[in-house]
Each structure stands twice: as C-alpha cells, then as structure tokens.
Amino acid sequence: MVKELKSPVRIVLENCGKINPESIEEYIAQGGYKAVNRVLQEMKPEEVINEIKASGLQGRGGAAFPTGLKWEFTSRAKDTPRYIICNADEGEPGTFKDRPILEGDPHKIIEGMIIAGYAVGAHYGYIYIRGEYILSINRFQKALEQAEEHRFLGEDILESGFNFQIEIHQGAGSYVCGEETALMDSIEGKRGNPRFKPPFPPSSGLWKKPTVINNVETLANIAPIILKGADWFRGFGTKECPGTKVYAVSGHVKEVGVVEAPMGITLRKIINEYAGGMRQGKFKMAQVGGTAGAILGEDMLDVSLDYASLKRKGLVLGSGAILVMDETTCCVDMLKCFLNFFKRECCGKCVPGRIGTEKLLEITTSISQGKGKEDDIDLILQTAKVMQKASLCALGQSPILPISTILKYFKEEFIEHIKGRCPTGVCKI
Ligand SMILES: Cc1cc2nc3c(=O)[nH]c(=O)nc-3n(C[C@H](O)[C@H](O)[C@H](O)COP(=O)(O)O)c2cc1C
C-alpha cells in the first residue's frame, strides 16, 4: 500500500483509508453513486459537459488538457460507437499517485467513467491498468461486479435507458503504452506504438472511433464536481488551475508517500510540512513532473506548483511526481539513470526517439566514466533539441527538459567529471 501523508485537502483521496474499498455499501454510505443518479435523472449530457467545463478541471495525467473540452469534442464527433478509456498505466518511475485511488476507492473511478460515458454518448469503457498493480486489478474487478449487481453498470442503468459497461485491460510493463494512442493500439491487440497526431482521440481513437481518454485522478474528480458544483471546485487551487493535485513524493525526504494539496502549493511546503523535511542531507534539487520533468534547484522552492505558473517558466507539473535529492546525489549519475530509462522504454518507431535516446545515454555514460570531452555537453543539448522537434511522441520530445534544467544548475559538475573528478564520489572515475 502507498502511504498517504497528511493531506491538507481531500477531494480525490477523500474515501481512501476511510472506507473498505471492497464494499460498495460503504461507498454508497459516503454519498457514492449519487452523482450518477443525478446526471441520469436530472441532467442532459450537454449540462454535464458544461458543468465540467465550468469547473476548469484539467487532465491530471500530465498534459493538463481541459477535461470538459475533451468531452465536448468527443460528444460532437459524428462517428459511433464512442468509447471511454481510463488511463491507469502509471509506468513512470516515481509516479504512484493513481495507485492509492485504484486500491482505495475504485468505485469513484467507475462513477467518473459512467458520467463521462453519459456525457459523450459512449456505452463502453476500458480501464488500462498497469499489470504490476495486482491489488488494483483485483479490487477494480470486484468493484465492477458489485456495480453491476447494484445496476450502476449494464443495461438501462437505474431505469434511465442508458447502458454502460467497463472492461479491464492489463498493461504488460511498457512505459510508452501510457501514451494515449499507444495505449489504444495496445487495447486493439497491436504492439503499443504511438500514432501520428492528428487525428486526436476525440475524433479518431480506439478502433478509430471517437474516444475520451482520461487519467485516473481526472476521473476521480468528476463525481465530487457533479455533486458539489463547479463553483465549489473553483474554491480550491488557483484561478487558472482550480482543484487539487495528488503528488507522489519520494527520494531523500523523511516521509515518502502521496499527498493531496491545492494547486499552487510550493515545493518547500510539500517537502517541509508534508514529507517531514529532508532525511539527513541538505536539499540539492528536485525533479518535478516525473522522469520527463524539470530539475528544480533551491531558487525554485517557492514557485507555485500549478500547470499555468510552471508553463510560464517553461516547466511542467506532469503527473505530479516529486523526486527530492540531497547533496549526496551526483547529477551526471542521475541523468544517466533516467536516460537509461528513456532508452529502454522508447518504442523505436521514430528515428529521433530510437537513435537519440541511445546517443544521449552513450555520451552521458562516457562523461560519468571521466572519458567525456568538453563539447559533449553541447552535443547532449543539441541532440535533445533535435529530438524535441522531430520525435513522434512526448517520450522523445521530453528529455530536453530534464537535460536543459540539470545543466542550468549543475553544468560545473559535468565539467568536473570531464576533468576526471566526480565531486560526490558516486561515479567511479
Ligand atoms: C510516454 C508517455 C507515458 C504516459 N503515461 C501516462 C500514464 O501512465 N497515465 C496517464 O494518465 N497519462 C499518461 N500519459 C499521458 C497520456 O498520453 C494522456 O495525455 C492522458 O492519459 C490524458 O488524460 P488526462 O487528460 O485526464 O490527463 C503519458 C504520455 C506519454 C507521452
């Protein structure tokens, strides 16, 4: 089980640890499935979409696309049938914020999926769950069976005439299958490679049909918004980015775990107030937003963690993973570590991704062994820039951000390695 740190606000994690996730009765006792009842009995599909649009909810899977707009595009697509997909692949190292929701409150995700289905006119949903999340898969399966028994799923739900079903698809351990179009290929039984975009999923997604794909955390926000209203939701977070974010905090902090906090919280607050502060050493850097996220130095400890503020600085909030590192961490070793991940997980479909990830790792490894040349630093940057422009999907496009930010703060450390010394003593030169 993932440990929950003391969250200052609980919208998404509200029931986690409070109710028995294997009991639909306990979920219902907390107001569960009331939102489904409300939309099916009292709201037109376009009213549901308008409420989600008004809430300002943005996708929590990384790209921060406005959820209501995604639903509207899908509902207006001419083709049928339409599909709902919940992205529960969560394959990025350091990202474990969907897992407590899957394990702790599966019905909330089901409820979000049913409402999404009703809003866009879809009658079938898939949830793509990371294969290693055995407990999540088992609990979700149980929750689906209970929801069917209680007639929240199946034919003529709550005698409304609306039909909806959900099927679980297990991932097979590929990070790139979390990318929305690769995920769809994977569900279709193909090798999970990203597709060229456009067309985007709302017009051509699963089986080339209109598809809404949303992250677990995004969908877990839906029922509370329907029940309490868009204005209530806008009462949390910032004007541009309402609501909360679930952060997965790991690394050299006293307490590793997840914390739900309003959008706009600072890194300093997360580390000091919720993760118990640094474990031993002094703060050196944090990678925010997962492996593809930026490296933030001490000067960024008070920056507002929300999509809009970080975007203005050329940074990303991504999935909300926060990896905190102290002074014992070697920057070159750290870069090598995540480039190794990118290289291993790249699907190989596009040349910039396939060759670029390999070359980046090769150059960084040689620097870490004291065999680097001074212009290697430029070469890393230039390679990552070309990949950003020419890669097919965000996997190849994203190494530029961690690379450019780690070099912004710690270029000197790279030069030291080239001169034959690892300042932290991590690299064996
Ligand atoms: C390599 C890669 C991996 C991704 N992995 C995930 C993932 O595990 N879960 C997720 O929700 N989104 C992931 N995404 C983002 C999805 O492509 C997509 O933006 C998201 O599922 C949309 O849902 P949202 O609008 O609710 O955020 C990934 C993207 C890339 C490029």
Give a written overview of the molecule.
It is a single chain. 43% of the residues lie in helices and 12% in strands. With 429 residues, the chain is an alpha/beta fold. It folds into three domains: 24-234, 3-Layer(aba) Sandwich (Rossmann fold); 244-326, Ubiquitin-like (UB roll), CATH 3.10.20.600; 331-418, NADH-ubiquinone oxidoreductase 51kDa subunit, iron-sulphur binding domain (de novo design (two linked rop proteins)), CATH 1.20.1440.230. A five-stranded mixed β-sheet has the order 6-5-9-7-8. Strands 3-2-1-4 form a four-stranded parallel β-sheet, sandwiched between helices. The radius of gyration is 22 Å and the shape is globular. The model has no long low-confidence stretch (mean pLDDT 97). Bound molecules: flavin mononucleotide. The site of flavin mononucleotide has 22 residues, from β4 and α17. Flavin mononucleotide is lined by residues 59-63, 65, 87, 89-91, 175-176, 178-180, 213-215, 218, 393-395.
Task: Present the secondary structure layout.
Layout: H1 24-29, H2 34-42, H3 45-55, H4 67-76, E1 83-88, H5 99-104, H6 106-120, E2 124-129, H7 134-149, E3 165-170, H8 180-187, E4 211-215, H9 216-220, H10 222-228, H11 230-234, E5 244-251, E6 257-262, H12 267-274, E7 283-288, E8 294-296, H13 307-312, E9 321-326, H14 331-345, H15 351-368, H16 376-390, H17 394-397, H18 400-418
The protein binds flavin mononucleotide (FMN).
Flavin mononucleotide is lined by residues 59-63, 65, 87, 89-91, 175-176, 178-180, 213-215, 218, 393-395.
